[in-house]
Amino acid sequence: MNTMLIKIVDHVDLQEAYQYLQDPSAGGIDLFVGTVRNYAQGKDVVKLVFEAYAPMALKEMEKLAQAAQQQWPITKLVMLHAVGEKLIGEPVVIIGVASAHRDAAFTACRFLIDELKKTVPIWKKEYYQDNSVWVNAHP
Amino acid sequence: MEILLFGITRELVGQNTLTVPPEENLQTVAQLREWLHAHFPAMQKLSSLAIAVDSEYADDAQEIKPNQEIALIPPVSGG
Which Pfam family name is an example for this entry (chain A) (predicted)? Predict the structure, then answer.
């Protein structure tokens, strides 16, 4: 059975993620949605632009998904990340985990988003009123 | 050897890819890193700079061959 949905897309779709995660054996579905915040580095953010090294990003996300499946009893999981220009409030990443019980769903969901931020080759540039910065690029 | 560039490395070089002349004869990730630092000193100021070979993170000792896909991975910031 296909148990993971991992994609780099122009727009993440919460409905698609939820539909995919539904399963008769799942007693809990945990969804995390990361969105564009209006404030960073002490400045108003106008927009974000995301880019990915897609083939490697997908591979790295699959590794994380497999690591999660080995640690927790996961029925299905979803990792969707958007690329391109995103405005304030827009969703950019969706992590979803379906499991028999909520503990595993919560814990695995947290693991997947935390690790995604560390290893998956996706970059965001923050645009303010007067300049723009690649996030995390410099100490 | 052609190197894929992303994020801030693409802006530092001003192109989407970087071609290393074959006569540079780079054999390892460490040698490529040295060459990059010499030609693009601004890359030394980044928080980190990983190098991927065939879309896997590579360590400095790894050998590189001209037919492999090499990419620069500046600090990631997805999510």
Answer: MoaE
